[in-house]
Design goal:
Helices cover 50% and strands 13% of the residues. It has 206 residues and is of the alpha/beta class. The chain has two domains: 122 residues, HAD superfamily/HAD-like (Rossmann fold, 3-Layer(aba) Sandwich), CATH 3.40.50.1000; 68 residues, no CATH class. Strand 6, helix 10 and strand 7 form a beta-alpha-beta unit. Helix 1 packs across helix 2.
Length: 206
């Protein structure tokens, strides 16, 4: 069968970069007594999801957490530090970076990520290889997030992509399910080795 794949769409967190909130908190607030609080009430909370979607600002999150939990100024400052600097402590998967750069020579690459606007700009600044992507859709910028179908429609229409010509690589099953509904080919990411092997199923060799 003739190869029809033209576009490969990458997720960011836990695909190109390992995202570990516990590691981030340890790196940025090593002396804090509130590490568990930051993990549960910030990173693993609805607030983080809302910031990713662009529905709430960092200042609003701090205000609501302060009112609810009586945070001190120091704790508020630590939250600011965590949100403004967490991208510096994402762990780049060198094998996936190599894959990204290799595929870039033969395919159009795109990024579809649930991410906050300012932190994503910081990530781009420190990882310029990401700018090789032909297009980037960040959830907070469009006020939609995976697995909502709207953000997939936005990517396809914004860059005039045909679903059957795309492969979407993501670590979350729900995000994969939505892509499949649109007839986008998918790879449920588990490792670089597994991803390369599954790309071969689409006649894409590295």
């Amino acid at each position: 069968m003739k190869q029809t794949i033209k576009h490969i769409i990458f997720d960011i967190g836990n695909v190109l970069f390992k995202y570990n909130p516990t590691h981030i908190i340890e790196c940025l607030t090593p002396e804090s007594k509130y590490k568990k609080f930051y993990l549960e009430q910030l990173f693993n909370s609805d607030y983080w999801q809302q910031m990713d979607r662009g529905d709430i600002s960092l200042e609003r999150v701090k205000k609501q957490l302060t009112e609810k939990h009586h945070l001190t100024e120091n704790e508020q400052n630590e939250i600011t530090t965590l949100v403004n600097n967490f991208t510096k402590h994402l762990i780049l998967d060198d094998d996936m970076k190599h894959l990204f750069n290799t595929l870039n020579h033969r395919y159009n690459l795109y990024i579809l990520s649930n991410f906050q606007s300012k932190p994503f700009q910081q990530l781009l600044k420190h990882n310029p290889f990401l700018t090789k992507a032909k297009g980037i859709v960040v959830s907070a910028n469009v006020m939609m997030k995976k697995p909502e179908i709207g953000i997939y429609h936005f990517l396809l229409s914004q860059y005039r992509l045909l679903p059957h010509e795309c492969i979407f690589i993501d670590d979350m099953k729900d995000n994969i399910k939505t892509a499949k509904k649109l007839l986008i080919k998918t790879i449920h990411f588990k490792s670089s080795t597994q991803t390369i092997k599954e790309l071969e199923n689409y006649n894409i060799t590295i």
